[in-house]
Amino acid sequence: PKGTWQIDPFGHTNTQAWLIGQYAGLQFLYFGRMDNQDFAMRKNLTTMVAPDVPKSIEWVWQGSKTFGKQYQTFTGELYGSGNGGYGAPHSLDFDGNGEQVQDDPRFHDYNLDQFVESFVQAAQDQAAHVRTEHIMWALGSDFNYQNAQHWYRN
Questions:
Q1: Over the stretch 8-44, which tens digit does the pLDDT of each residue have?
Q2: Interior/surface letters 14-29, b for 16+ CB within 10 angstroms, e for the rest
Q3: Tens-place pLDDT, residues 44-54
Q4: Is 8 noted as a catalytic residue in this protein?
Q5: Residue 39, number of CB atoms within 10 A of its CB
Q6: Do 80 and 138 touch, CB atoms closer than 8 A?
Q7: Average confidence score pLDDT of the chain
Q8: Which of 22, 58, 60, 114 gives a 20 to 30 Å CA spacing to 124?
């Protein structure tokens, strides 16, 4: 594998980036959750606190100044519902007994058009906060998938 993601590591050091780049040989790492203040700062594209802090929830993590770019890792935070983490965007969270996708226009609760619009809007919102042309969807969180039939029917 060329990359990995971590659920709930709750803290990261430069040593971790250096180990991932040098010893594991990975090219990218995504966090399932990071510090809320760090996430908010990276997500806010207009009020960064330092010029060397990337204006994105994705950045190149240089684990060691000694080795320079040799062991750097492309890193990011999962966007989730817009606040970081690995939960699904609000319009795509099918856990529980919430609204389901109805794709048959013969029924009164047909909502495929609204679902597609919500899907596109969530993708555009996330794309505005990343550095690449790709986004990674996280679809689950703590205690999700308790109603698997509801998820997979949608």
A1: 777 677 778 878 887 888 888 888 888 888 888 888 7
A2: eebbbbbbeeeebebb
A3: 765 555 666 65
A4: yes
A5: 21
A6: yes
A7: 82
A8: 60
Catalytic residue (choose from 8, 103, 125, 142):
8
- Strand extents, DSSP E, the chain: 3-6, 28-31, 58-62, 72-77
Spatial CA neighbour of 58 closest among 33, 79, 36? 79
Rounded Cα distance between 21 and 6, Å, is 15
DSSP 106-136: TSTT--HHHHHHHHHHHHHHHHTT-SSS---
Give the C-alpha separation, 116 to 55, whole Å: 29
Report the C-alpha gap between 111 and 117 in whole angstroms: 10
Which residues, 6+ apart, have CB-to-CB distance to 117 below 8 Å?
Answer: none
Q: What is the pLDDT of residues 137-151, one digit of tens each?
A: 888 788 877 877 777
